[in-house]
Amino acid sequence: MSTPLPTLPSAPAVGGGCSDAEVLKERGQREVFCGLTGIIWLHRKMQDAFFLIVGSRTCAHLMQSAAGVMIFAEPRFGTAIIDERDLAGMADLHDELDRVVDTLLERRPEIRTLFLVGSCPSEVIKLDLNRAAERLQARRDDGRMILSYSGSGIETTFTEGEDSCLESMVPRLPASTVASGAEATASDAPELLVVGTVADIVEDQFRRLFQQLGIGPVRFFPPRRSRTLPPVGPNTKVLLAQPWMHRTVEALARRGATHLPAPFPLGAEGTTGWLRAAADAWGVDEGLFDEVVAAPRARARTAVARHRERLEGKRIFFFPDSQIELPMSRFLFEELGMPPVEVGTPYLHRSLMEAELPRIPEGTRISEGQDVERQLDRCRADAPDVVVCGLGLANPLEAEGITTKWAIELVFSPIHGYEQAGDLAELFARPVTRRSLLRV
Ligand code: SF4
């Protein structure tokens, strides 16, 4: 017996949404993690990679407190502490880095890719990590890959670390080819590349759906094994799982790949739109598409609907954090009836948001960058029901009686796809429930 689809409450009319909305651009003090934090999810995904932060004690403390749990496991990241040096000491610094890398790789044969991750101290900025990686690579012939990227708080915010990391891998991706006789020639059969780290369980669910739709070959970037690099070429179609992949998409485009514009796979409708973008590119029959997505989409709608009563009508305000804010506000508005008041994002890359902006209701204040004091003033004046913000702002706002949701959970939790849609809605229902219990 088939379960009837729950009716998705209709979203308020959105007109052209926020496609042409004027964006409030701010360039003041920011309250956001640096790009080093991306190592926390990248090291879990690429299980044979090691991240060597070339940094200060501050970087080591950040990583240890942000990813403290790792001290109980064999860590796959570490910090080479660079102390103050004058220019005369810089030559020694290269020798020291070489020594650290040699010791590490000797001791840990399972490491297949080593990332040298740059940070803020002036000594590190003076050190050319790209050249150091090239030098270290040239000295080895054991098939290991040595790359570098910046996670510095001066150059990157929170999720930009992942973008820089993947961008550094793009030049090493093999060209997609097909064997023709004795020669390999460029392949013209389309291949799907899903870009952005998602939890393994989510990756497996997406693989199954693509397979049922007849879409393939499908590869994920970053891969689980850092040496199983996906090929790229003019036949590669890129579908973004995460919205912070601006530079990686540009680097893939330089290798000939094409970006498929799509909403991000958050909630029942975002996931359907995301799969449909790939299905359209592969010419999948409409009937087959509906048949494949019907059951998981219905499950997702039911799971989300359980939280709607608690959340509907609650006005939400986003401080900028990860760049997931616009897709998230679209999900909350369309599927839970939560009107956004302000959606702050660290960067707005319109080319990646063209399927999202029209679905954000007209009149929403969209801000890019941050001037934290001014934004706090706007937030207090707006008096939203829920505020999504970083850890540093959450406690003071809670003390003022404002309900908050930690933005970091939206990055660290598996939230993509149909089967996670209910959990995603619950992430927002929980603080609202907690606040109402406190009031009782
Ligand atoms: Fe290290 Fe700079 Fe990040 Fe601080 S902001 S932890 S110094 S990279």
Verbal overview:
The chain folds into three domains: 23-31 and 307-439, Nitrogenase molybdenum iron protein domain (Rossmann fold, 3-Layer(aba) Sandwich), CATH 3.40.50.1980; 35-156, Rossmann fold (3-Layer(aba) Sandwich), CATH 3.40.50.1980; 185-301, Rossmann fold, CATH 3.40.50. It is an alpha/beta fold and 440 residues long. The strands form four sheets. A six-stranded parallel β-sheet has the order 1-14-13-12-15-16, sandwiched between helices. The chain has a four-stranded parallel β-sheet with strand order 3-2-4-5, sandwiched between helices. A four-stranded parallel β-sheet has the order 9-8-10-11, with helices on both faces. It is built from 17 helices and 16 strands. Bound molecules: iron/sulfur cluster. Iron/sulfur cluster is lined by residues 34, 36, 55-56, 58-59, 62, 119-120, 151-153.
Spell out the blueprint of helices and strands:
Elements: E1 23-27, H1 39-45, E2 49-55, H2 57-66, E3 77-81, H3 90-107, E4 113-118, H4 122-126, H5 129-138, E5 145-150, H6 160-169, E6 177-180, E7 183-186, E8 191-195, H7 200-213, E9 218-221, E10 236-240, H8 246-254, E11 258-259, H9 267-282, H10 286-305, H11 308-311, E12 316-318, H12 325-336, E13 340-345, H13 350-353, E14 365-370, H14 372-382, E15 386-389, H15 391-399, E16 404-406, H16 409-412, H17 421-439
Helix pairs in contact: 6-8, 9-10, 9-12, 10-17
The chain binds iron/sulfur cluster (SF4).
The site of iron/sulfur cluster has 12 residues, from helix 2.
